[in-house]
Amino acid sequence: MAKRVRLVLLSFFMALSILSCASRPPPAPGVVPEFPVEEEEPLPSIGEPSGLLLAFDDDYEEVWERYFDLLDRYEAKVTFFVQGDYSTFCAAAVKKGHEIGYHTKSHPNLLKVSRQVFFEETLGGAEALRQQGLPLKSFAYPYGFSEPWMEDALEEHFSIRRGFGATCRIYSVPAIKAGYISSKSIDNIQYKSDAAFEADISAMLMMIQSNGGILPLTTHTITAKADWGISPERLEYLLRTAAELGLKFYRYGDFF
After folding, report:
1. Is residue 21 part of a domain?
2. Total domains, the chain
């Protein structure tokens, strides 16, 4: 009886998640709108690769490094979108098999800076890291904000550019190779309880296991105390559930 109730509840949450992935609800408080606004891509068909694009943004390098062992335990390879200058963390992450992406020099709202500052923050900052041997195939817009001309300016320099928001989107490999995707926030601020987080994660991961496709997820620091971060317990729940379902963790650069 208990098992049947659990299956019914899980089916219910999966249905809710599918509706979320197929619609565009208003962003959660503090989450910026997503770009570009275009027709939704159909859900990937069965038989396509199933997996996650897990990313961590900003400059929490000392915190991230403390969780390398947790990522190793579940054979999870992730992308760290770093901001600022080159640091020893970059080399340590790459040695562990993770990817370094770029997130500008100082995390400005790119909609509010001059074009000169835009290029200094993006291409200028990236060049310094590339001189240290980092390929930097991927770029994440601060706050998820961008405009079409920015895509035109960056597409020759980064194989993939990433937005950010509250909506779940599942991508086929060809859609990822087109060069722009938007990632769902799984930060603490998005969930009122651990139970809500676990229900949402379980539904999304079971959906991609069943249908195929790649699910981008993004957070920031790793702590229960920050709105824009994920608690260690929630992170391990995500990693463990993905492992149990046989889902692969991809890095952004794996598709290029």
Report:
1. no
2. 1
In a domain, 18, yes or no: no
Quick one: pLDDT band at residue 16, thresholds 50, 70, 90?
Answer: very low
CA distance 143 to 113: 14
Give residue-wise pLDDT tens across range 193-237.
Answer: 999 999 999 999 999 999 999 999 999 999 999 999 999 999 999
Q: Is residue 205 part of a domain?
A: yes
pLDDT band at 110 (very low <50, low <70, confident <90, very high): very high
- Report CA torsion sign: 82, 179, 41, 111: positive
Please answer whether residues 168 and 17 qualify as being in contact, where contact means their C-beta atoms are separated by less than 8 angstroms.
yes
Alpha carbon distance 96, 239 (integer Å): 17
Where would I find the beta strands (DSSP E) of 97-245? 99-102, 138-140, 160-165, 180-185, 213-219, 221-222, 229-230
Coil, helix or strand at residue 106: coil
Task: Give residue 212's region: left, alpha or beta (phi > 0; psi -120 to 50).
Answer: left
